[in-house]
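4.2 Preliminary Data

To establish feasibility before requesting continued support, the project team ran the inverse folding procedure on a target of 311 residues. The structure was first converted into the token representation described in Section 3, and no sequence information of any kind was made available to the design step. The complete token record follows.
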């Protein structure tokens, strides 16, 4: 799978050409400006910053600190931190929030709904659990790498209301539970600090860490997909495969490119009866992306590492 899908190159070119001169703040994920932007915005208990990653703004704040603390390593490329390749993570979390994917899929509580607690992130959401691993681990590995300006025992994440053993909460417990993923994120931060690393080198280490994270988390949370409509569950599975293609193509997850790419993602949860390319409230681009995704597992079913049961 070490090839660049031709469409990826074309899309990247198109985005770069069509987006010169945007106002960056329009591209930020929902509630970005209102989320915590430094450690001192969080609560302190017993000398530790306490972060509740099951509240959307607090989880987004972790990304905001991460993107901020890594900005200086990307300034060689372009000012304004637009080229920071960590933007892909908060933007995806923002898309999940905006499209209802962080809410309780069984609606047994009002977690994540406007009628209840909109900022609540449900531990029953497959998207939210997968994203936890793509937030907590990169964040804690960054702390461990020393680039966040605090020491490893100075931050603690709060557990979700249930299934707590699936989630590690601090640097030491993540290292002992998920040593392979943590060491891949650590490798990324190490290369980030080498002046000799090229943009492409960094993408390589970022995507290696990202893919390893999804592969491990996917196995833990596969059963959550049962809470969804068949089209949404299929989309989740296909998305996992698509991410492996994005990884193999070293898709540059900068602010602008990720934002443009997201215009092709479903703007709401999929429901029974949704069938690309015929979903009437989706754009042509969204229908096309969904259709292409549905073919990916058939192109290469050996690549579906983040899922067990794909056929
Ligand atoms: C990082 O955060 C600090 C404090 O909030 C702020 O002054 C600075 O401008 C931020 N840097 C970037 C690149 O966003
Ligand atoms: C990390 O979290 C675990 C529980 O998940 C706890 O037992 C341990 O004391 C914590 N370590 C630090 C350094 O806070
Ligand atoms: C997909 O997997 C099946 C068995 O799981 C195998 O028979 C088939 O050859 C695979 N197809 C491709 C394109 O790898």
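Position-by-position output of the design step:
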């Amino acid at each position: 799978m070490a090839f660049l899908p031709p469409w990826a190159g074309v899309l990247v070119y198109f985005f770069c050409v069509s987006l010169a001169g945007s106002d960056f703040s329009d591209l930020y994920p929902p509630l970005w400006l209102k989320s915590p932007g430094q450690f001192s915005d969080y609560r302190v208990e017993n000398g530790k910053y306490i972060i509740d990653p099951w509240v959307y703004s607090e989880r987004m704040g972790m990304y905001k600190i991460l993107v901020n603390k890594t900005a200086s390593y990307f300034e060689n490329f372009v000012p304004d931190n637009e080229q920071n390749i960590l933007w892909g993570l908060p933007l995806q979390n923002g898309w999940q929030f905006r499209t209802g994917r962080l809410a309780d899929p069984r609606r047994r509580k009002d977690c994540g709904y406007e009628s209840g607690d909109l900022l609540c992130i449900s531990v029953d959401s497959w998207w939210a659990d997968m994203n936890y691993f793509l937030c907590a681990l990169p964040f804690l590995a960054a702390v461990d790498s020393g680039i966040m300006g605090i020491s490893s025992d100075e931050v603690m994440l709060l557990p979700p209301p249930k299934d707590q053993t699936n989630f590690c909460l601090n640097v030491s417990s993540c290292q002992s539970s998920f040593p392979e993923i943590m060491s891949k994120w650590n490798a990324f931060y190490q290369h980030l600090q080498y002046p000799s690393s090229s943009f492409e080198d960094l993408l390589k280490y970022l995507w290696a860490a990202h893919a390893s994270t999804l592969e491990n988390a996917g196995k833990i949370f596969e059963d959550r997909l049962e809470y969804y409509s068949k089209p949404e569950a299929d989309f989740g599975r296909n998305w996992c495969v698509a991410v492996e293609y994005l990884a193999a193509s070293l898709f540059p997850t900068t602010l602008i490119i990720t934002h443009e790419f997201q215009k092709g993602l479903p703007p709401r949860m999929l429901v029974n009866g949704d069938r690309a390319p015929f979903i009437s409230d989706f754009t042509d681009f969204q229908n096309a992306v969904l259709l292409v995704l549905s073919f990916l597992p058939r192109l290469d079913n050996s690549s579906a590492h983040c899922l067990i049961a794909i056929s």
